[in-house]
Amino acid sequence: MTAGNRITASSPAGSIYDLGYRHYEGKRRGRGYAIWSLYVESLRSVWGFGRPTRAKAAPFIVGGLYAFPAALQLAFSSTIAAQIQSGQTVELFTYSTYFIQFGFFMILFCVAQAPELVCRDQRYQVLPLYFTRALSRVDYAVAKLGALASGLFLALLVPMIALFVGAVLMKPDTLGALGDELPKALPALPACLLVAMGMAAIALALSSFSPRRAYAAIGLVAYFLLMEIVPVAIYAVGHGDRVNWTWSDKLLLLAPSTTLGSAVNWFFGTSLDPSLPSTLSGGDFLVAAIASIFVFSGVLLFRYRRIAA
User: Fold this and answer.
1) Confidence of residue 7 (pLDDT cuts 50, 70, 90)
2) Among 152, 164, 172, 242, which is disulfide-ready with 185 (CB 3.0 to 4.6 Å)?
3) Where are the domains of the chain?
């Protein structure tokens, strides 16, 4: 019987069709390949590849705005070098402070792209299609987390490369500048990785609790704002004229942007922001940042273990 031939049943109530479905006879690549495929497709989604042009607008515009100051410094590196040689004081962007100065754009990146990765699968109820195959719930969460962290890492790394190239071009001896500048720039790799993992874990864990992107985005904005404002406000009150709450210093470790930005200083061996209490060190913020990665990754895994599929 050929595909599409119609066989009429004995009863006039219905008909049977041979649609000609064929069984898959190719190589079955297993669980590892399924995880890798989901990771690659999710990473493409982070940057809007394979989707309409409007899907690329948010990641590329926000990522471009984050990298713009470093690109501007690179573009005018020759002018800055001339000013330095003439003895003028020039304020430059540095590896250790760049995220603290412009990390707001990375928060916007997470707000725009994290819900895109996990909310649609819940809303359109496609999770059962994933979980009936080689993928487990943990595999799904790990692939999504890795994809968002990779996308953030690339966005964070681009301005570091621009700063490195600009610093080299400012020196008259380019080859000598490469050897001098490379040890200063290398800590940017683990620092960017830490920031990417920290922000990705927070953003995906919170976004996974809503099937609607708008609600997830609002929740992310509220979390980042409140967790930056509330600890600082309590710290300010706790060090007023009539009170001395020494424990309020530790609350600053709960502020996500402050914690990640200050942990970056530890990698470069630079001093913290003078506005931060002297009782906290870069190592304290590093431990808090790593702890937040484990906590929010655990929340994400727990969410997908419990979610109805």
Assistant:
1) very low
2) 164
3) 31-306
Of the chain, the end-to-end C-alpha distance in Å amounts to 38
pTM: 0.87
Tell me the pLDDT tens digit for each residue of 225-237.
999 999 989 988 8
- CA angle 181/184/185 to nearest 5° reads 85
**For residue 2, what pLDDT is reported?**
46
CA 118/CA 211 separation, integer angstroms: 8
- CA 92 to the chain's CA centroid: 25
pLDDT digits over 58-101, tens only? 999 999 999 999 999 888 876 666 565 555 545 578 999 999 99
Q: In which region does residue 192 sit, left (phi positive, over 0), alpha (psi from -120 to 50) or beta (all else)?
A: alpha
For the chain, give the number of residues.
Answer: 309
* Nearest-angstrom CA–CA distance, 114 and 216: 9
